[in-house]
Write a structure and sequence with these properties.
The structure is a homodimer. By secondary structure, the first copy, chain A, is of the alpha+beta class. Helices cover 58% and strands 12% of the residues of chain A. Chain A is globular and about 80 Å long.
């Protein structure tokens, strides 16, 4: 019932007209000319629309089954995974030394959006594999790299992340899984992990679990945690899957959505593990995966909203119900299409303005990540570090809201399974939770990132916006419609940061009671900045003829919608923040 | 896994300290003394907590099955329905002439909240029966009343509402179901209805369908629609279920939630129907049910949020994770409970402040309905008519958001089925859709109710708030914390109404593009007014000793949280409204 088409034009606009990627001095960016990126995204879109998306509802309906200890994925998933692998999609931005194509992460992000929109649960199998690749690539020994990376790049093997235990999620210091030295350099891993996405499946011949565990007699709490490579099948002398390791699936969780991806309880019963990145350095290594995963979850948030938007828009054009209040628009039909009604349009414009702004934000962040990784730019790294919790928290929260809004366009038909809209909502809901629930993102932002390196990255963000405004304010229309509202929003963000600096020192609760609002305030400024940049890019694209007038007009209208209807929310967030912690903290626990 | 306890203290506070119900001159209110209402709510709470709530997850898991043309409800539902019936709960506020207890609708609302929180899907069987009772009681002939009402009051029979058809939901003018005169005063009903809640089941010996249909040669569109009583089994000479009528269940819809209630496709294949309320007067009669249903859906919205809040609060007290940033609160435990963290408290306070304000609003509306129905007060009727779309739209939207926020407290454990939180979210989602999707509520509010009777009811609402502020502003603390923010919010609402009056005349799109924001702005003013009234009531209750100091302190803190963190949203809604329709209406349909 549902459909999906890759938003190639919008992606091309961001890559070229807004970011001007091929002109960048970042190594590898020179390859990203318009024709090349269009071809790649177009091919990804074909695979997404024709192969992956038709399996989205199948995955939801069938879910995964545990049969004789092995997870069986839904009908068609194995063939689709072969298609993904055979198309070379899994190693797009990976190191050519291990079989990757070495393309920028920016392009990987565009392709990633297409696959996530097409089938989020399916894409998680490859997505987590990429995380495992990155952790081993960054922290592994040469032997480990040689053993694992080629198979992860080619997706002949997949990867997982094992952090959570029944009694500890966010607070990893409580972790109990043990890793005892086996005497031969390996470790014996014992414990139970839960909520392991893609923990088992029948798509590949091997699965590489990255497992956090505690080596005995190490430091207490989070400082005593190490990361281990625990293969489902231990590589033999030829590097092929050999003896089965002592790792098994306890059960598949029943959950609200993403049924196509097996969320497993994993039991490690004396499994063989190999230390990755040094004793007690587990958190550092895990954060390599985690930061990448957090950006990816932000991407999931808006990618699911894009899918939902496309289907809501199509339904609003087709479904006949009621008449335009100013007179029939389709007098020869029994009623006008839903899209004539102002509140339906308001809803669709809200979705569209969010999704396009979010896409620009994630592509910009990917651009910064490339600048950091490929050009060694520490400032870019610091800025991405600051933006990561905002991207994860805000894009997943608002992506969910946007998906719910898309479902609403269908009325009662959105609530029944048949139209597929309820799956989108159920799937989108997880993005607010995993890889650190959004409250934890807000805590990370306010408690850590804001003041990191003496607050330098926050200042750099403000400077970037100030510079952009200064450089463009001569354009009167741009200034009035985009720069002025951006400036006002940015001032609200500065006032909030100032409040935290002044009050948070005296009382940390003052900052943390406002952390969630600060994250969303920050998100609005980011999206407002993206809209200002897109508005400017629409002008240059129109002049250069790289986008049609219709495209540029639509882009400007959508941006103005954001600037008039969404970004004024910064004032509300600031009011909540400066309301302080008194009422939030006042009640005794038992008065709730 | 989940639990529920009726919030008796808070209900008693609203009924007595805020509304002072027993002192009212409304007939029947004299009976509502503190002990009596406490006893009734307490008994309802017992049935809810012990019998209905344990079946909530059962209903979700098992759903309903269609067996040989009959819907089978989940295990335990039939016994629970017997308990509901035998306890006399179904006729609480019904006419004693037909076996009801004649108690005020206000008390029915309190009891209704308890049952909805306990098990929303289950309660819909009785809830829709009440709607059918009201329609027949208001519009039926003496014979019809005598035939149907005693059985609906006793819930030996249940009722349904049949409006929607596959091609028409909101736009009932498109309706195709036909009603041909049979010659004997009855009609022959032919057509298909969809989304019929409680359309069939095995709880009672008969089901009375109220069906909208079109009598041939009547006026086109909505003016040619009539309402019919279509019993599943035609009453025989003794008024007992006789011959089976030509009505059957086409299928049960698979849907996102409320699985315990059968949402049916109903086929009427020449079924016998009896005209209710005059030819072509169907919409008027249906609106008797509809208005009642809309208030009930608003109640469902916050009642589900109450259930979710209770479980989130309990989890936040029990789950150990992390430490209070200002120092360990439970140093002898491995970690502090979640509830020490400011953002968890912020989240719980948001939920609590919404739910308690919403409860006060629905009880106040019930009070106005009693005043209208029992004292013939036309002003009260007009005010309720104005408030109905606000109560339906705002309390369901924010009830859903609040339920999602409660789920969030559980982190990953909220996403798995086991904890029950995801069911609450899936169930709550329907309230934004049925009985008129919330966009339609906003349209009803702005397009119809706002200017009804020359805008008199809107003016009366503003006057009521102005008077309340004037009468209480001498109380400096109340004035600063509650009356001033209420006044500011009320001014925003007036400014929005003024904008619609000025711009809407020139361009109806100007009003309708802002309708959704207006509805929510209005909702904030309603809830702010309720909090101001509750704050004053906390003062009088403390003085009179009718509530504990601890209760009053908590009430005031919760209210201040609302006034500082939530009600400032009125400014944002006003900004969106006055941004006008330009960007909302600008795009061509194919530019979306």
């Amino acid at each position: 019932m549902t459909s999906y088409a890759a938003p190639i034009d919008d992606m091309q606009f961001i890559l070229h007209d807004m970011l001007d990627a091929p002109s960048s001095d970042i190594p590898g960016y020179g390859d990203l000319d318009r024709d090349f990126t269009a071809a790649i995204i177009g091919e990804a879109g074909k695979l997404g629309s024709e192969v992956l998306h038709p399996l989205n509802a199948v995955g939801d309906r069938e879910g995964c089954r545990l049969e004789n200890g092995t997870v069986r994925t839904p009908t068609g998933f194995a063939d689709a995974f072969d298609a993904l692998r055979d198309g070379g999609w899994t190693g797009l931005d990976c190191d050519p030394a291990f079989g990757g194509q070495g393309l920028p992460y920016l392009l990987q992000s565009a392709v990633g959006e297409v696959f996530v929109s097409s089938n989020m649960a399916f894409n998680m199998y490859a997505g987590l594999t990429h995380g495992a690749y990155s952790a081993i690539h960054t922290h592994g020994s040469d032997d480990q790299k040689a053993t694992y990376l080629p198979h992860l790049v080619s997706a002949r093997w997949t990867g997982t992340m094992n952090l959570t235990e029944p009694h500890c999620g966010t607070d990893l210091g409580l972790m109990r899984t043990r890793a005892e030295p086996a005497g031969d350099g390996s470790y014996v891993i014992t414990g139970q992990k839960i909520f392991i996405s893609a923990g088992d499946h029948d798509l590949t011949e091997n699965i590489i679990h990255l497992v956090l565990a505690r080596i005995p007699d190490g430091p207490a709490g989070i400082k005593g945690i190490s990361l281990f490579i625990v293969p489902k099948y231990l590589p033999d002398a030829d590097g092929l899957p050999g003896a089965a390791n002592a790792v098994s699936v306890g059960k598949i969780e029943e959950k609200m959505g993403i049924h196509g991806n097996a969320t497993c309880v994993m039991n490690y019963d004396g499994a063989t593990g190999f230390l990755l990145g040094g004793e007690h350095k587990g958190m550092r290594a895990m954060f390599t995966m985690m930061n990448e995963a957090r950006i990816s979850v932000g991407l999931q948030g808006y990618a699911q909203a894009e899918l939902a938007y496309q289907n809501a828009r199509d339904y609003a054009r087709e479904r006949l119900q009621g008449r335009d209040v100013t007179g029939a628009r389709a007098p020869d039909l029994p009623a006008d299409p839903l899209i004539v009604h102002p509140d339906i349009r308001r809803n669709l414009m809200d979705q569209k303005a969010f999704v396009e702004g979010a896409r620009a934000l994630v592509f910009w962040a990917a651009h910064l990540i490339d600048r950091s990784a490929r050009s060694g730019d520490g400032e870019a790294d610091g800025l991405v570090s600051l933006l990561t919790p905002v991207i994860k928290g805000v894009l997943s929260d608002r992506g969910f809201d946007s998906t719910v809004a898309a479902q609403q366009v269908f009325g009662g038909h959105g609530y029944v399974t048949e139209t597929g809209m309820s799956q989108f909502v159920r799937d989108a809901r997880i993005t607010m939770i995993y890889e650190g629930a959004n409250g934890v993102q807000a805590l990370d932002l306010v408690g850590r990132k804001l003041a990191q390196d003496g607050g330098r990255h926050m200042m750099a963000f403000f400077d970037e916006i100030k510079t952009f405004i200064a450089e463009n304010k001569a354009d009167a229309a741009l200034n009035a419609d985009f720069l002025e509202p951006l400036k006002a929003a940015s001032k609200d963000l500065q006032a909030a940061a100032m409040y935290f600096m002044q009050e948070g020192v005296k009382n940390p609760h003052a900052a943390l009671a406002g952390s969630y609002d600060f994250m969303h305030l920050f998100g609005h400024v980011c999206l407002g900045y993206m809209w200002a940049r897109m508005a400017r890019a629409a002008g240059t694209a129109r002049a250069a003829g790289t986008a049609t007038d219709a495209f540029c007009d639509t882009k400007l209208t959508t941006g103005r919608h954001y600037m008039t209807r969404q970004i004024p929310a910064t004032r509300l967030h600031l009011a909540r923040i400066t309301a302080g912690p008194d009422h939030v903290m006042a009640l005794d626990d038992d008065a709730f």
